[in-house]
Amino acid sequence: MNLLRTSLLAMVLCLTLASCTKDETVQDLETNYTIDLSLADKTDWQMANKILTLINDHRASLQLTPLKMDRSLASAYAVSHTDYMIAEDQLSHDNYAQRSQALIESGALSVGENVALGYTSAEAVVNAWIQSPTHKAVIEGDYSHTGFGIVQDFRGTYYFTNMFYLD
């Protein structure tokens, strides 16, 4: 019995030592939320300004605080996602959790997002968002800032990402 116990102990010890070396230990993964802020420069700022005016007009009609333009971090993430949608040739909220978490790590308390594809004017895209209960809820949400990723693909089709956050 002692021989069996000693053999089992030796086997467990051997498996424990052989199963994990210092180089193979699980490391804490740090998520890197850095982004090239110059991406925001790709946004069609003329269209973005018109959209913001229309959104703020809608918010004012409900006595909601106007949103401030974030031409930096939120817009860089918005453009990054818009570029992704163009590359995929489809509308999506893919990887929203990462964009949201990046803004939260930078101090945002809450984050929202609207996307769109194919509209040719600020009025058309804002009207479509307001006609959609889920998009309208984001526009009317408890947010203080907004960023834009408005980019045309090679065919001239507009893709929109509109990030919202509360600071």
How would the blueprint of this fold be written?
Blueprint (H helix, E strand, L loop, with lengths): L1 H18 L25 H17 L6 E2 L3 H16 L7 H10 L4 E8 L4 H10 L1 H7 L5 E8 L5 E9 L1
Parallel strand pairs: 1-3
Antiparallel strand pairs: 2-4, 3-4
Walk me through the structure:
The protein has 167 residues and is α+β, with helices and mostly antiparallel strands. 47% of the residues lie in helices and 16% in strands. It is built from six helices and four strands. It has helices at residues 2-19, 45-61, 73-88, 96-105, 122-131, 133-139; strands at 68-69, 110-117, 145-152, 158-166. A four-stranded mixed sheet has the order 1-3-4-2, with helices on both faces. The longest helix is centred in the first third of the chain and has 18 residues, at 2-19. It is globular, with a radius of gyration of 24 Å. Residues 1-30 have low confidence and may be disordered.
Instruction: Summarize the helix and strand pattern as letters.
Output: HHEHHEHHEE
Shape: globular
Radius of gyration: 24 Å
Proportion of helical residues: 40-55%
Number of strands: 4
Strand order of the largest sheet: 1-3-4-2
Beta-strand residue fraction: 15-25%
Question: Number of DSSP helices?
Answer: 6
Terminal CA distance reads 67 Å
Quaternary structure state of the chains depicted: single chain
The class by helix and strand makeup works out as alpha+beta
Query: Which whole number gives the mean pLDDT?
Result: 85
Quick one: biggest sheet?
Answer: 4 strands, mixed
What are the segments in which pLDDT stays under 50 over at least 5 consecutive residues? 1-30
